[in-house]
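[Q] Does anyone have a clean structure-token version of this?
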Amino acid sequence: MTPNHLPGTVKIRDVTPCEAEAIRQFLCANGWAHRVGNSEEFSALLQASQRTAVAIDPTGDVLGFARAITDGFSNGYLSMVVVAPAKRRQGIGRGLVEHIIGSNAGITWMLRAGREGAAEFFGSLGFSASSIAMERARACEIRPRVASEFRR
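[A] Here you go.
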């Protein structure tokens, strides 16, 4: 998938399992090391995500990544959207979000927009601040559990 607003050499597609370590390293290099854990933990995180997307250049380098959790019918949570700083404002983030969300207008998508510029970026994609959402924040920074612990 290459949306019209992306540079012609950038491709956005679903993540394949063999890309897990390259994506984990990309995330660590771009300020997300505290959320991805080690290789096994990150692979479990990917397996537990219903939707994933990666942006790559022609050499296969990772330029961006997104993941979401959804039932596919009613609700979805956009958990992570990360684009390399040097590649921002080129349509990659928009392409990742569009790939994750898809065309089902019946799904209500939620996200946390706490990073600098996030509210404006997601607002440009149709997201708005909610007056009805609540959250129960994690008590401390924890790493993902291994896949066997996700499936109770």
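[Q] Thanks! Anything notable?
[A] Residues 32 and 97 are 18 Å apart (CA to CA).
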